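Per reviewer request, we include the raw input and output of the structure prediction for the construct analysed in the revised manuscript.
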Amino acid sequence: MPDLNFSIRGAAPVFHSLSPLLKFQLEISTAKAAETIQALILQCQIQIQPAQRSYSPAETERLSELFGPPKDWGRTLRNRLWAQASTTAGMFTGNIQVGLPVPCTYDMDLAATKYFYALDGDEIPLLFLFSGSIFYLTADGRLQVQPISWEKETEYRMPVRFWREALDSHYPNSAWIQLRKDVFDRLLGYKRSRSAATWEQALEALLDAEVRTAGRPAVGEPALTASESILSMERDTPYVSSAGYAVGQEGYAESPASGSKQAHSEVPV
């Protein structure tokens, strides 16, 4: 009965595919050099091995969403499924190399995408687990089918840039987020109300508004001095006097009972 061995000899992004794609160069060899295999149907589960590499402080911070705080990484830094792939091979004797295509996605709701995106560089430790069927001839010429042992696996350290190049070839300088339909409809309405030409303009307006509300300068604006920050707070914050007058930006207080206005200078409550 045939015994096969597997190893990954390399990987590369496929630039002219219809969607982002990586292709791994898989070498399949028989334990007996002169043994002939008639055909091969192969399935492969690819797992990420996050514990097999180190991380910079910036990467550690970004990966906290996936693995929690670093103090818990001894428990949470376990293998994660990336993809299921499949391929076939025709008749060969001894060994053969075939391509193993793996689709890539920018779906940031997926753990694998979050992991890849959080890395600045270096390599991604991968584990390939194989299964499938081997077709071969017996000594008397009968065709036989044998399952591939579940113990067959191999490791490969893929450069992070391969994944980035595969995505950038289809979505240059872009990223994707998934929204609930009701949230998307609200964002679309905001985009129309602001006459924003692009989604970037709508989101930048929202982010700049949030920054100003928090008292921080928007992108490209100079930071406020301490006195300017206080004056800004005084302009935007209503006041209440000890007599119960509400004091606004004009410096006058309106009595809730009479509606008359009086000049006041009070501290905010």
